[in-house]
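W.,

You were right to be curious about this one. When I first looked at the sequence I had no strong expectations either way, so I just let the prediction run and decided to look at it fresh. Below is the sequence, 651 residues in total, followed by the output.
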Amino acid sequence: MPSPRVVVIPFGVPTAGRGLGLGLAALVHAFAHVEGGGVALAQLQARRNEGRPGDESLAPLPPGPVEAFVPPAAWRDMSRHDASGDAGAEVSLVLTGAFEPPVDGQGAIRLLAFDSRDGRTRARVDAPVDPERAGATVVGAFEKLWSGLGGEIGALQGLRELGWEPLESVLRAERCALHDPARGGPHDRLAAMLHLGRAIEDAPAARYPVERLSAMALEAAMGATLDPKIAASAVRALERAVDDAPARIELLEALAALLLRIGRPREAERRMNAAVAFARADSPNRGRAYTLLAQTLRAQGKLDGALAALQEALSEAADPAVHAERGVVLAERGDVDAAAAAWREALARDPVHPAAFGHLASHALRTRDATLGQTLVDAALAGSRAHPDVLRRAIQLALVTEGDGLARAARVARLCERVLASLPDDPPSLVTLARALVVLGDRSAARSTLAHVVRVAPGSSAAAEAHVTRLALDEPAAERDLQSVVRAARSAAVADLADVAARARRLATLHNAWTGWLAAAMAEERRGRWAAARGHLEMALEAAPGATAAHLEMAAVLLHLESPTAALGHAERAMALEGDTPRVLGALARTLAAAGRRDEARVMANRALAATPDDDDVKALAAGLRAEPAARGWAATTARARDLWRRRSRT
């Protein structure tokens, strides 16, 4: 029998405590379970009102998620009127409550779980909250509530040892760490890490803040993009945390991972040598310390040293991360078969280990091994606690290695639903789910899903894709015409490009399609009409601010118009939207070179070359940046970058 769908509404808090109710609900969403199923987080947004002069009761409301105690009658009313579907009929159990922080003496927590269909109370708890035992009181209240629901609170137990000040910092951190669909990641990762650092300062012996900060820093270090300013601030926060809790090996590991990510491998190696010394004495089975030490050595080209560190770990630990990293080192030494065997060994210990799964998935795609790809997809579907990154990789594998049809669409839809259970409103997963629903014949649900993407993340690349998918769904002939004109803009004879541009403009205007404006710009680029191309791209980005392809083309156009700073802005926006894909890395390298930032350009070019070693343009760019003497200056680098863009735009 399927588990009931349980929803938690961000708890009501006083105005001064805004954000605490959302942080507490985020913890419930992350860790609590009822009858084996997770707890969804209600996405209810405050409605704006404009206010009336002299009427304070109608003052404008700040935008953002609702934090409120919602009784059964109010929930039923929202279910009838909520167009977004967030208070939908599939919900069977609702958890709501109110939290009064113990700021000036004793506080209070009130929890209510009710049946969404008839409003019947399933469990209720009221408890005072003392400042000194705030964590224990909150945990006790949730334990009492959950015991009546057949559930468990999981890692919420870790809050038990916190007094009010560190608990407040944790709650504010969890609010900042909550997934934001518009950003495609945490609402404010840096603020979350700073809040956790304060919690460690206030309670250095507490386990939860240390483990959470470490996990968040490791996640940031492994992410597709990492803002250098955020990274530097995060390093400082971790350094302070290490000073406050020097015996916690998790903090050393997280600090080393961030240092490695921002290009300081020697310092990371020093930190990891200290961590490994701790591990040898107190945690001999801790494979992560050896894994990170190997990564710092590998980053410096010390592959033999990396293998030696991993070999020591293999004699002490059974951590699949050790085997996963060993595979990476072997791959860098050119032993691809041994690398694949190491990744398989890691997955034999943990079938959905994120690093091993990702590397073996890349191997399957690179070698076109459909059997391996489908085996990995099966493992992701079977893994009850698979990380969202594993599920996303499985979606990619299914789309590439399996034939189009109902079976693939059903598998992809299930994977997308699993991602969305962990990351509500994740825009790329919503778009992929909508496309699967079209194949499965549920066109109405597909339209609703695509509209939801545009509503929750209007500036994302997924919203741009949602526009394209919606047009294909509603006007398939128009979408075919647009695809045709995009192809023509790339490949038509120069003599025909004026007609291609005119046809693209007509289709773009008729269907409000950003891809039409993109095609018109590409045609004008090939004609050498750079100002006209810029105008068309401005129209494309007005229609779809998250269209990565339009940002990349705009970077090329602005480079030709000798505006390298503006070009770099669009390349960086493309990186934020799409991550460090080869085409984005190449574009960023070219614009950095044109802006005179040659060292950074070389780094990006080398990363692009590692991802696409057979790309002639990228090879030429990397070689040019290595050979080009600094004395040639800005003009030379700009000319070289423009030449590479001209060659790229003709292909």
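Here's what jumped out at me. Strands lie at 6-8, 33-34, 39-41, 93-100, 107-115, 121-129, 151-152, 179-180, 185-186. And, maybe more interesting for your project: Residues 351-413 form one domain.

Coffee later to discuss?

I.
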